[in-house]
Amino acid sequence: MIAIHQPNYLPWLGFFDKARLADTFVLLDNVPYTRGSVINRNKIRTKGGWEWLTVPVHNISGTIIRDITTVDSGWEKSHWKTLIFTYSRAPHFKDLSPALQEIYAKRWLKLAELNETLIRMMFNWFDLHPHLVRASDLAVQGSSSELLVNICRAVGDQTYLSGVGAKDYLDRSVFEREGVVVKFQDFSSPEYDQLFGRFIPALSAIDYLFNCGRTKWWSQP
User: Fold this and answer.
1) Which long-range contacts (CB under 8 A, 24 or more apart) does 149-156 make?
2) What are the counts of helices (DSSP H) followed by strands (DSSP E) for the chain?
3) Each residue of 132-160: b (16+ CB within 10 Å) or e?
4) Fewest Cβ atoms closer than 10 Å to its Cβ: which of 45, 64, 156, 207?
5) Residue 221 has pLDDT above 80, yes or no
């Protein structure tokens, strides 16, 4: 089974649940960057609720994700300071922070390279090992459902795992015509102990990791 997803910044648990279920996980980096998406930002838990942790980027209309560059503003140091300030008292911050600190100590020009590095690290923390492929490394063309089907064909997989949100726009007939079976992910975010009280769902998975460690959320009671 194959899952295909844009390389998001510090993705939420649903992203990693797809990787748990898939044999092949394709980072969809050959499509245009979408302003206001979670490709360059995600939510973290703060004392006051939640807030965006955003990587500033140069957004030129029509630029594909792999070519998006970040603004040289010192955001790497700022993000790391924010994570320390927010999560230093979390139970598993001390265990996980050294590897994360190494990432934020570097200057990242390409957003997709940063996101892939973070995703690979978080895959390892969750003990997830799908075959990871960049769409830009495949000889595929098309848009929307046609592109997804072409990616499935390129990697030789006949079952596509989609998020439930895609039901409204996925053209199932394109998949059926090419003999690709579509399955929809059934995921609901688990509730877990967070800092600062009341549980807030759908945050970056880094919140879960700092609070719960390298545990498998799908095996929790």
Assistant:
1) 149/174, 149/175, 149/178, 149/180, 151/2, 151/4, 151/26, 151/28, 152/2, 152/178, 152/180, 153/178, 153/180, 155/2, 155/24, 155/26
2) 7, 9
3) bbebbeeebeeeebebbbbbbebbebeeb
4) 156
5) no
Over residues 116-149, the pLDDT tens digits come to: 999 999 999 999 999 999 999 998 998 899 999 9
- Determine the Cα–Cα distance for residues 150 and 155; give it in Å rounded to an integer: 9
SS3 content of the chain, % helix, strand, coil (to 5): 40, 20, 40
DSSP code, position 10: S
Is residue 105 within 8 Å of residue 76, measured between CB atoms? Answer: yes
Domain ranges of the chain: 2-219
